[in-house]
Every structure is written in structure tokens, then in C-alpha cells.
Specification:
The chain is mainly α and 112 residues long. It has six helices and no strands. Helix 4 runs antiparallel to helix 6. It is flat.
Amino acid sequence: MLYLVTKFATTALIVVAVSELAKRSTVAGAILASIPTVSVLAMVWIYLETRDTARLATFSVDVVWLVLPSLALFAVLPTLLRMGVGFWWSLAAGVAALAYWGAVQLMAWFRG
């Protein structure tokens, strides 16, 4: 139970740190946010819990495939915000643009 609480606290601390840092400096916040923190933390937790390096290798490749559609969010969101679209609509459109379903299908196709 302590391990699970540690996982939650560590992960939450990083998210809070990014948002607090971004309030002071958007560039510094963006640098911290652009580090694949979630992926790195997930890899650490998976390794500590399973010691399964084959699973980690597969996870890493899957993340590469799914980073590509996630970039759409970072193109759509600021474009819509600059056009005067409200934050929540812009965020929703950016999330919808992720097209994860298509990326997962393409990833499965390449795997055979």
C-alpha cells in the first residue's frame, strides 16, 4: 500500500510542478512537460514491479507510435485559441484530433 501511495504522490508532484513552473515561465514549464515524464515513470514502475525488459521494450515502441498522433493536440489547441475559440472547445478539439484509434490500428497493422 505504501508503494502505491508513493507512486501516486511522485506522479502528482511532477504534474503539480509542471503547472506551477509554467505559471512563472512558460518555457521552463514546457521544457519540464516535454520530457517524457509519464513514460519514464511508467517504465520505472513497470520495471520495479515486473523486471520484464521485453515488456518495457514493447511499451517503449508503442509509446513512439502513439506520440505521433498526440502531436496533433499541440498544433490544434494553440491554433484554435489564437482564432478566439474558447479554451474548453479548443481543448476538446485538440483531444479529438489525437486520432489514437487510427494510430493503434496502424501500429497493429505494422506488427502483423
